[in-house]
Fold this sequence. Notes:
- The complex is a heterodimer.
- By secondary structure, chain A is mainly alpha-helical.
- Chain A has a domain at 63-254: Orthogonal Bundle (MetI-like fold), CATH 1.10.3720.
- Chain A contains 13 helices and two strands, in the order αββαααααααααααα.
- By secondary structure, chain B is of the alpha+beta class.
- Chain B has two domains: 5-237, 3-Layer(aba) Sandwich (Rossmann fold); 245-354, CATH 2.40.50.140.
- Helices cover 25% and strands 33% of the residues of chain B.
- Chain B has helices at 49-57, 79-82, 99-109, 114-127, 143-156, 174-191, 202-208, 226-231, 236-241; strands spanning 5-13, 24-33, 38-42, 64-69, 72-73, 84-87, 162-166, 195-199, 211-216, 219-224, 248-251, 253-255, 258-261, 264-266, 281-285, 290-293, 297-306, 310-317, 320-327, 336-341, 347-350, 353-354.
- In chain B, the strands form five sheets. A six-stranded mixed β-sheet of chain B has the order 6-7-8-3-9-10, with helices on both faces. A five-stranded antiparallel β-sheet of chain B has the order 16-20-17-18-19, with no helix packed on it.
- In chain B, β9 (211-216) and β10 form a beta hairpin.
- Chain B is elongated.
- The two termini of chain B are 40 Å apart.
- The model of chain B has no long low-confidence stretch (mean pLDDT 87).
- The chains are: A mainly alpha, B alpha+beta.
- The interface between A and B is medium-sized, with 17 and 24 residues.
Amino acid sequence: MNKLTNQRAWWFVLPVVLLVAFNAIIPLMTVVNYSVQESFGENMFFWSGVRWFEEVLRSERFHSALWRQILFTGIILVIEVPLGLAIALAMPRKGPWVSVCLVLMALPLLIPWNVVGAMWNIMALPDIGLLGRGLNALGFTYNYTRQPFAAWFTVVLMDVWHWTSLVVLLCYAGLVSIPDAYYQAAKIDAARPWAVFRYIQLPKLKYVLTIAILLRFMDSFMIYTEVVVLTGGGPGNSTTFLSIDLVKTALGQFDLGPAAAMSLIYFLIILLFSWLFYTLMMRNEAR
Amino acid sequence: MMANIRLQDLRHSYVENPKSDADWALKRLTIDWADGGAYALLGPSGCGKTTLLNIISGLIRPTEGRILFDGRDVTDASPEERNIAQVFQFPVIYDTMTVHDNLAFPLRNRGVGAREVEERVREVAEMLELDTTLKERAAGLTADGKQKISLGRGLARSDVNVIMFDEPLTVIDPHLKWVLRSKLKELHQRTRRTMIYVTHDQTEALTFADQVVVMNEGEIVQTGTPIDLFERPQHTFVGHFIGSPGMNVLPCEVAGGRAIFAGLPVESANAAAYRGDGGRLELGVRPEFVSFAETGIPVDVMKVLDVGRHRIVETTQAGFVIKMLVPEDEPIPEGAAHVRFAEDRTRLYRNGWLVT
């Protein structure tokens, strides 16, 4: 068989190459460029090798931001995924309430992130906010601008409010796509509700759950706007997550080298975790 | 343990307040299924056969009428209480379980002891030739293997009243269809369970069943052995739907106890029974019982189709097509010819139904 050599085809690929170059490769390479050089005023750059990477990896500040980030993402995943699945299971499959539920669920997703932050900021204020005043009236001493625990509580609550819907909608879509015959067969086989969940719904939801977990992992690992508006990373550094720390380094202190090195490490961590999640959840498929 | 099943005065509609005839998916029917029988429910898509099946299994509650298992009213009983098994159009298996656990699932759910479960699973796996795959994950099997698992879950239970099949061969490769079909027949003979097989494929129905129930537009048009359906269709629909090609249905009149088609008298088995009460009159005769003759109905030969041992000849008279089946060694005249209908195989139908 003769191979066709038609070099003109490259012209058709060119637009995509340009697009990818401008929106991914060039910005990424700029960051790589910064991460291996020391910068001075008037655009003077000196080669510094892997110094910034070593510095970031050894820095106490980076470690604690990373730890906070992992803790935060872990907590919201543990809450949002089971909660979202439970809500999706409880939602009606037929009738007029379906659209009502879907709209209600979609609402939080439509609100801009800084608005979400502002809403929760005001709502959680201990003197005038509904949540803040309510909690204090119930006898809890709650002040998210002073107590790290209260700040964490508010940030987690806000994220659960904002993003559980995404898990709900994905799971719901997965649930309604299960053919009726499966439920009918389960009835005929005298399966209890738990067995229906365990052997029909959960296996059929595997892919959407994988997607939901991946999306929530990546998004929450990069959370920025809502937290900045709500707590500004405080009190102290108690809610300074990776992205907030990164912005402080890059734009607050203008340490471009360390910030670039940090970005790349950050990027690789997300990549690594995503790959890990995906491989773990899909490992049975190969068989 | 098994049961005679009786459906009494059944009607079903998917519409809230059925008004017109078309609102009824099932129009009033009564039918008995004897214990241990092999039945087929045959009809075109949308004729109500799946509705009827789901009513028997308890997945749908009929709008009107009762379902009796050995005289016991089970109209409001759940599928679980009715002790039935069903094989669906698309294989339904529990993906994450092994083949063994799939077969054991309905037994374990019913609290059957571990030793008996093992015994039953082995026996069923052996019958279905699944014994070598017992330890594999069910999701890895081919479509026919999966369909065997769904069937096996029904066979594994010793107390099943009836096993129902809803077009079970839809997703099976053609070359495996006949293997599974003869397997089903063999299983029926071996286990003597009542089986109801729903299909729109006449070959499947006629090879599997002892009794075929033909449905059309929510009604049962005939119940009988495959031979009955072929030789004595009670309705022109049965004549046309069963057989390849189907029965010729020709408009006619009746005068002096004789049928008259296109101005020519035609001898038939039952025209004398016609009581002169009007209605749409038709003559039905299968292509197998039409032959060329010296005299008779003048026709024009239009088309000849060779189908192996026979040829299908299409002729016309006064604009009506008369199909006939001619053995391969018989000559076929060209152009104008005469045909005869075998008298005892030619029947008069009034408004679609056989005149008696």
